[in-house]
Structure formats: C-alpha cells, structure tokens
Design brief:
The structure is a single chain. The chain has helices spanning 12-16, 35-41, 110-116, 127-136, 150-157, 165-174, 192-204, 233-254, 263-268, 276-279, 291-302, 323-337, 363-370, 398-403, 416-419, 422-427; strands at residues 2-7, 23-27, 30-31, 46-52, 58-64, 73-75, 141-144, 179-185, 209-216, 259-261, 313-318, 340-345, 378-382, 409-412. It has 428 residues and is α/β, with parallel strands linked by helices. The strands form three sheets. Strands 1, 2, 3, 4, 5 and 6 form a six-stranded antiparallel beta sheet that branches. Strands 7-8-9-10 form a four-stranded parallel beta sheet. A four-stranded parallel beta sheet has the order 12-11-13-14, sandwiched between helices. The chain is 33% helix and 17% strand. It is built from 16 helices and 14 strands. The chain is globular and about 65 Å long. 39% of the residues are buried. It binds iron/sulfur cluster. The site of iron/sulfur cluster has 9 residues, from loops. Iron/sulfur cluster binds next to loops.
C-alpha cells in the first residue's frame, strides 16, 4: 500500500487538495505496489492518479507538470521486506534482549539497497522483483554476496533455498545493473579458496561489479547462532594478503583498487591502513572501508579552521578499536587549538567487550566514562552513537546523558565539525 504522509504547502499536490492519509492506487493506469512504483511512474509530465481519500472516497487527479516540478508528496515509510536467512553471524541475532522493537527487524530489501545503500542478499527476490530491478534500472545495488560458491553460501546464510547469487548477478548485469558487493568472512567457511573463487567470479563480471569489500565477521556476546572459528590476527593477515593481491591486479588492469579490506581487517591484522589514493571514491565508507583514512584526511584539511582553546581540557570518547589510531590525530588537534586532548576509552556494557566499535557505545557507557570527570571543560562523543531522534541504542536520550554529566558534550563525526563550530564556544 502506498499512502501519503505529508503534503508540502503550495505544491502541486496541495493545490489539487490531496490530503495526508490518501491511498495512492494507480499512476497512468499502472497499479502501485510501493514507493518504487510511485517514484518511477510519476517521472512522466502528464499524470492520471487514482487515489482513495482518507474518508474512503475514490478520486482521480489529472495533472501536468513542467520540468520535473516536484509534486510535494511524501509517502509513509514502506513495509520492509524481511530476511529469509538465518546467518550464524547475523548482528541482529547478536543483539542483547530488551532493546526497542525496530532494532530486531531483520530486513533484506533490494528496494532499500537501491534507495539507501543497505546491503541485501537478494535471497528473497522473486521473478517479478528481478523484472522491476531491470525495468526501473535500480543501479547500483549493494549486495551481500559472502560467497559466490552456491554450497558455501547456503551454509553461510543458513538457508538451503537461497538462489544462486552468481546467476542472479549475471542476469542483472546483462541488463545493465551494477553492484557494490561485500563478503563477510567467517574463518574456515568463506576465506581461503572460497574467497579466491568469489573474487575471481566477481572480477569476471567486469564493470558490473563496481567494488568489493571484505569484512571480518563481527560477533557480540549474544551471537548465539555462531559455530564458526574465531577471527584472529593470522587469519586477518592471510585475508589481507589475498585482498591486496587482487587490489594490485585491479590497479594494474583497471586503474582502481576495486577490492578493499575493511578498516577492521587492518586493525585485526595490526597493519597500517592504506592512504587516500587506495580508496578512490570511498564507495564503501559506510561499510567501514576507508573510514579511518577519511577521518585522517578530514582532520588534516580542517585544522586551520579549529579555533584556539588554549589551556582547555577536552575529553575524546572512543571504543578500544580506534584508540591506538587516535594519538597522532589528537596531537594535531592539540597543536592547532592549544587545548589538551585526553583520549577516554569506554567499554561496551550492552554488547560486551568483543564489540569495540565507537559507534556502538551506548548512553550508559558515556555516563560511566564521563560522569566523574569534573576536570574536563568539554567532551566529544562519537556522533554515530545516536540516531536522528537523539536516542542511543539503550534508549538513553542525548539530553538525559547531558544532564547527568558535569561537562558539556558534543556528538562529533570528525572533531573538526565541533571544534570549528561556533556552538562549542557558547556551550563551553
Ligand atoms: S541476511 Fe543474514 S545477517 Fe542479514 S539480516 Fe538476514 S540473517 Fe541477519
């Protein structure tokens, strides 16, 4: 069902009298199944829209618009497609009990892959979906491949009915669809020869595969399905050696790295992270590929905008994964601002000590780490820890955390965003 959530004032929809709550049924005679149909079918200039108003009356709107003038209609969020797999390494299955309900939704939705860059396995796509991807040219898609070997993939996804991903990708590629792929590697299941086979298959798809990321399996203390081996330093180094061999080949033949080890893989292998040139357009930065290098780059580029804060004491909160990389960054910030920066490493109380990512720290961890630090003038916390409503994963709000701390805190993505901003001067 496609329903209107909001109408923009003075827009075409407003002038037509379309109301929030209206159900949109067809566009130019074609039925609407979801937001994708709406998005693509309303691209025409002349539109006949059949709708059912909130009072139940069916109505037809006819309109013409010039130069892609927006209609002014926002839709209610789509019903997310649920995942048909049961991966041993599923992060959702590794969540602790008692969190808010939406966090437990295991989505696997090619529509969100196209619209927002969410990774999807394509396990639950039907023939009709394939036709839509091709007709609407939903490209690029972000695909969790994990392994192109069909038998290995069945085991990895814990789903005997999973379609053959290689055949799916090749069919879509023949229709002009491109992909960013990821392989979450479980030692003993899809590393070594299976990874080699996957990289070979993806490479042989040519331009269709825009990038491939290799990510080590990440587990929490609640990952109850996992039976695989532990990811250790030697395995991480072995995987990196393979990834870099393919990356060198790609640089030589295509002029770009193409396949990337995630930042976490380098950290597990205790290897220095590659420089900016390695990552090209940082296509998989949201997947933790190049995020550290990008942070370094943004800090270096923003130092001259940092205002002087001589003598101030600034706490920087992070998880233990990032801690070893922070000292040089904080030294630079210190030199640029005159402030003393202190790195504060917090442990994750919700997911357990195996989760060391800064972005997964919760409100309680921040209060525990900073609650008694009366000596700090301000503190920076990872902005990724809160959602768009200012709520941490453990349901603490940013406001509540702020009220329990003795210093002002600022969510920050790259330090510069806060240290060069005027807001900090007022609050501090
Ligand atoms: S595809 Fe696997 S990891 Fe992703 S939501 Fe489904 S079970 Fe979890």
């Amino acid at each position: 069902m496609v329903k209107v959530s909001r109408i923009e004032q003075n827009s075409i929809a407003d002038e037509l009298g379309i109301l929030p709550g209206t159900e949109l049924l067809t566009v130019n005679g074609r039925p609407l199944a979801d937001f994708l149909d709406w998005e693509f079918l309303t691209a025409d200039e002349e539109l006949v829209i059949e709708a059912r108003q909130p009072d139940g009356e069916q109505i037809v709107f006819e309109l013409e618009r010039l130069d892609g003038e927006p209609l002014g209609i926002s839709l209610q969020p789509p019903t997310v497609r649920r995942c048909a797999n049961r991966c041993e390494f599923c992060f959702i299955e590794g969540l602790p009990p008692g969190l808010r309900k939406p966090l437990y939704i295991r989505d696997d939705d090619y529509r969100l892959s196209f619209a927002y860059g969410n990774f999807a396995t394509l396990s639950n796509v039907k023939e009709r979906d394939i036709e839509r991807i091709l007709e609407y040219r939903l490209s690029p898609l972000y695909v969790s491949v994990h392994a192109t070997n069909h038998e290995a993939r069945k085991v990895l996804l814990n789903n005997q009915r999973v379609p053959d991903i290689k055949a799916q990708l090749m069919r879509l590629a023949a229709g002009g669809i491109q992909f960013h792929c990821q392989m979450v590697v479980v030692p003993g299941l899809n590393d070594a020869e299976v990874l080699e086979e996957s990289l070979t298959d993806l490479w042989n798809m040519g331009d269709a595969v825009l990038s491939a990321a290799v990510v080590p399996v990440g587990l929490t203390q609640f990952s109850h399905l996992y039976t695989g081996k532990k990811m250790d330093r030697d395995t991480a180094l072995e995987i990196l050696e393979r990834v870099e061999r393919w990356g060198d080949r790609a640089q030589g033949e295509r002029g770009e790295t193409w396949v990337f080890g995630s930042d976490e893989l380098y950290m597990l292998g205790q290897r220095e992270l590659p420089g900016v040139d390695h990552y090209g357009e940082f296509a998989q930065i949201e997947n933790g590929v190049g995020a550290v290098t990008s942070l370094r780059m943004r800090v270096a580029a923003g130092l001259e905008r940092v205002s002087r804060r001589d003598g101030q004491r600034i706490g920087v909160l992070t998880g233990s994964a990032m801690a070893p990389l922070m000292a040089p960054l904080l030294d630079k910030l210190s030199a640029a601002s005159g402030a003393h920066f202190e790195l504060i490493v917090a442990e994750n109380s919700l997911f357990g000590p195996t989760i060391t990512t800064a972005g997964l720290l919760v409100g309680k961890d921040i209060v525990a780490a900073l609650g008694r630090r009366h000596d700090l003038d301000i503190a920076l916390i990872p902005a990724e820890t809160i959602n768009e409503d200012g709520v941490f994963l453990d349901d603490f709000t940013l406001e509540a955390v702020r009220q329990s701390l003795p210093m002002p805190i600022f969510p920050s993505y790259d330090f510069i965003d806060v240290l060069a901003s005027e807001a900090i001067g007022v609050a501090a």
